[in-house]
Give the backbone structure.
Amino acid sequence: MLNLTNVQIVYDNTIEAVREASLSVGKGSIVALLGSNGAGKSTTLKGICGVLYPEDGEIKGGQIIFEGRPLAGLPPDEIVRTGAVMVPEGRRLFDQLTVEENLVMGGYTRSRADAKRQIDMVYSLFPRLVNKRTTVSGYLSGGEQQMVAIGRALMSAPKLLMLDEPTLGLAPQITEEIFEIVARLCRQDGMGILLVEQNAQMALAIADYGYIMENGRVVLDGPADKMLRNE
Ligand code: ADP
Ligand code: ADP
């Protein structure tokens, strides 16, 4: 469903954050995008979602095709409507808004009735959030905030969910819970998942396929189980 071919992204016309990124995510598959800090993973996700700052980060080359349609140049809200949605690193919730209000914000592409149904779907996926629906999100634990952030992204019923370091700073127990839900979205709903993680072991354990970036380039890729064995 998603194909990147030789994507190049430059900041300030000088910093080549992404030099050569080629990768694919198929329907119903979990793809891990791995690599050390500064490798270009976040920038790649931002490029796909059209959220590079204007006049700062710029796609200089290559192709980003989602469901047969080029994404580069489309505004971010248009990209959300195509079904490609990102949960940014650091969650970025509206801290003063309640859990439910945050979810509502993610449903802006939908009718009221659809949004209502989608909110119920999110609560069924994250039972922990049910009795927190009127809690101000700034008061939630890190893990709960991550669940709200993922739930908010799911409000637009995406076909492709991109997660930027979703488990950063979270306890192993919560990480496991979140990964289980992500795997379920993929296996049950056929959602494509692009998972950016620094913890390669953990990510490859739930992924089907992996890519490793280094200095802005995809330097290695392969089936996740094979990558796990070789590490
Ligand atoms: P990763 O997600 O793999 O840690 P990033 O995509 O965040 O890597 O960063 C890739 C490179 O681009 C790094 O050298 C980083 O410092 C640089 N970079 C990221 N964002 C910006 C920005 N807004 N302006 C300039 N350079 C940036
Ligand atoms: P992210 O991985 O989302 O880029 P970071 O913590 O690396 O998060 O960066 C925080 C903010 O600073 C982001 O908006 C990012 O684009 C920007 N940034 C990252 N590296 C640089 C850099 N070298 N120069 C300027 N801005 C940067």
